[in-house]
Design brief:
The protein is of the alpha/beta class. The protein has helices at about 10-20, 55-65, 90-95, 105-115, 115-125, 150-170, 210-225, and strands spanning about 1-10, 30-35, 45, 50-55, 75, 80-85, 135, 175. Helix content is about 35%, strand content about 15%. It has a five-stranded parallel β-sheet with strand order 2-1-6-7-8, sandwiched between helices.
Amino acid sequence: MTKICIIGDSHTGALFKGWRLISAEFRDLDLTFFAGPRNGYAEVVVKEKSRLVTSSAALRKGWRISSGQTNFIPNTFNAYVVSSLGLSFGPFLLHWEAKRPVRNLSAFADKVVRRTLTFQTISLLRQITDAPILFLGSPLPPTEHYSIEMGTADAQTYQDAFKTACRQIGTELNAEFLEQPPETVAENLVTTDMRYFSGVEGDRFHMNKDYGAITMRAVFSMLSTRV
């Protein structure tokens, strides 16, 4: 049985729902989710070189409820997946809308990606485990909830900058970046197809179980040669 740890924030909900949808197909996998408020991850530290703990009461509660086990993350898993935690294409959309010079895009991408709680968390994990680590960003915003007129060429330029920064920084930490599955991305390359939107009234950011299932299959495919 391969034990996989999924770490993240509210976007982990779609992954959990997706996993429930397809779990019968992967009986050799044992998944444990550790999800909670994103801000609490700023208070995560390593304890006794064997586990991640947090002084955030809200995050400890989230971890305990979502894992059904503990309020800390141990080094006993065969692989780890870090989801979202501020790693997002959103700042790149804002950069484009502000019409900032593209020549500065690479430095901007490195700065934005490097400072996320995603990479802080991966850095901490690397202090307790040598197991494979995958990471993925927040899903692109739902098409109908983001008005944008970015052309295809610009969209590709900004996506390339984001993905390159993720891969480069991931390499530094011996972690691998998983792109948003292409079948969930709208034709404009910068939003998510509405078929995968949560549909929850008032929600403008989260995805549904179908998105989660597609993403989890991509996770398992990438991990299949690493664990």
